[in-house]
Write a structure and sequence with these properties.
This protein is mainly beta and 163 residues long. It is built from 1 helix and 12 strands, in the order E-E-H-E-E-E-E-E-E-E-E-E-E. The protein has one helix spanning 28-32; strands at residues 9-14, 16-17, 35-43, 46-54, 61-68, 71-74, 91-93, 100-107, 115-117, 120-122, 124-132, 149-156. Strands 2, 5, 6, 7, 11 and 12 form a 6-stranded antiparallel beta sheet that branches.
Length: 163
């Protein structure tokens, strides 16, 4: 039984690349070399997400997203300020070698219960690391998919242990 009120624990994120979903100026072999790892944890009414990656576009602007049954939501606290200026809280800092050393976001909700939204809850189904070719973040939206925003690696969200 999937009783999301009692779900707690952690889910290891198993990312795979999306080689067909890339900007036309980036070669498939380069795009497909990306690897990432991470974890999503939740307990009671809080949680966190941690990710690291390599093989990304050097100094590229990336963001991390929860993929839900109601659309895409930032992998960040719901009470965070989003300004769409390149400094949104779900922005990933990628170095000149294409490495994201570490990203962690403390969440003000349990991700296994879903993202609280107006009118209900959005059930998280996965996580995406998205390349923003226009070098900006787009606030609470990833931008126009396959035009300004490209999911490079994605992972499904597994079920944690139940207490």
């Amino acid at each position: 039984m999937d009783d999301r009120r009692k779900l707690c624990g952690c889910c290891k994120l198993v990312f795979t690349t999306v080689p067909a979903n890339r900007p036309p100026t980036i070669a498939v072999p380069f795009w497909a070399q990306a690897t990432a790892k991470g974890v999503v944890c939740g307990e009671d009414n809080t949680g966190h997400i941690e990710v690291s990656a390599q093989g990304l576009v050097p100094l590229g602007v990336y963001t991390v997203w929860f993929l839900t049954d109601r659309g895409t939501f930032p992998a960040a606290p719901t009470n965070a300020a989003f300004t769409s200026d390149g400094a949104d809280p779900n922005r990933l800092v990628v170095n000149s070698n294409g490495v994201l050393n570490y990203y962690i976001a403390l969440l003000d909700f349990n991700p296994f219960k879903g993202v609280p939204i107006t009118g209900g809850t959005a059930t998280i189904q996965g996580v995406a690391i998205t390349y923003n070719i226009d070098r900006t973040t787009h606030g609470t939206s990833p931008g126009t998919m396959n035009v300004t925003a490209f999911d490079q690696v994605v992972s499904p969200l597994c079920c944690p242990r139940m207490d």
